[in-house]
Amino acid sequence: MKKDTITPVCEIDFIDEKKVKSIKKRIPDDSLITELSETFKSLSDFTRLKILLSLAEDELCVCDIAALTGVSVSAISHQLRLLKNNRLVNHRKEGKMVYYSLDDEHINKIVNEAAKHCKE
What we know:
Elements lengths: L16 H10 L3 H14 L2 H12 L2 E2 H8 L3 H13 L3 E6 L2 E6 L2 H15 L1
Antiparallel strand pairs: 1-3, 2-3
């Protein structure tokens, strides 16, 4: 990741009212931005991101995820609860087993696109 030492700013104070008004109509409302922020907050945690990357490969039970991440079953359960609350994962029960998967294909795309971006 490149880091600039100085962030360039405009040398004059000018607002393009037409452009600002146009963009304001097209961006999501604040409630959706808040939800997006919570989603990205979930993605910013190392363990939760590793869980999502693992689930992008296949559905897994808590014990499988714990083995993959090197984190306790209890800690994984807590992380899965947070991910489920943010609608990033879902689960299905099969007998005594509970299997987790990504909530939908959008989550898979987000995670994989971010990984591609970081590899470039």
